[in-house]
Amino acid sequence: MHPTLILICVPFVSTIYTLESWPWGEVICRLSETGKDISIGVSVFTLTALSAERYCAIVNPFRKLQLRKLPLVCATIIWIVALLLATPAALFSNTASATLHNNVTILFCSPYPPDWTTFPKWMTLAKAIIYYALPLLVIAFFYSLMAQRLLASTKEMPGALHAGQGEAQAKARKSVACMVLIFVIVFFICFLPYHALELWYYYSPTAEYDYNDWIHALRIIGFCLSFLNSCVNPVALYCVSGVFRQHFNRYLCCQRSTLHPSCSSRLSRTAI
């Protein structure tokens, strides 16, 4: 999870769901919304780029040695694109007032100008496409090709190898195929509620009247899931990857057990 997401977004954005009125002022509102878009953009685009890099690493594992500067170039492009896409939030985020049914006036932080009726709809749709739909399609595309490549490579092994090292390698590749599929599912689940509720709120003509405690609870769940996506992948990787689990236990849990030779060779062949 990016530091900006923890220091800027989470403490302030979480108050939207716990306090009736925004207490931090317009500057913090603009800073929070901008930081949120930057962090989500960097996280999503990095995950998308990693899906392509992992596929290329499996198809041609020696090519990455020839392109050592490519990760730096990709990281620079990702940050530039994320900053550009966060520009509307930096320019238009503001605090607005609203009067509730009991004649109580509250302030809320809005990423859109209050007088622009169609702008929020187009921005919400654009964010759903740029931050969710397109990355999901790209990730699913590369991970599907990756899974097919891994499973096909196990069938291409000579039959004599299946009794020894080839069998272990086939098992490792199937494990990696399962792992990357889990990553796609995690990405789909974590960001679906957030974007679905945002689209419903801005495109349903009766959204403000239909909004109730249940929808508010779903919105909180969607908010939590969207931020949890940044830290769910290591947990999923720990559950499905024995090599990652052994490294985690060894270096972070201070368990000094050495890796089994088969695990070490498996890591070198299936690293992504």
Automatic annotation (TrEMBL):
It comes from the Eukaryota. Residues 1-21 form the signal peptide. The chain crosses the membrane at residues 70-92, 129-147, 176-197, 217-240. Keywords: Cell membrane, Disulfide bond, G-protein coupled receptor, Glycoprotein, Membrane, Receptor, Signal, Transducer, Transmembrane, Transmembrane helix. Its main location: membrane. It is a multi-pass membrane protein. It is found in: Cell membrane. Residues 1-237 form the G-protein coupled receptors family 1 profile domain. The keyword Coiled coil does not apply. GO terms for cellular component: plasma membrane. GO terms for molecular function: neuropeptide receptor activity. The keyword Ribonucleoprotein does not apply. InterPro entries: Bombsn_rcpt-like, GPCR_Rhodpsn, GPCR_Rhodpsn_7TM. Belongs to the G-protein coupled receptor 1 family. This is G-protein coupled receptors family 1 profile domain-containing protein. It comes from Leptidea sinapis.
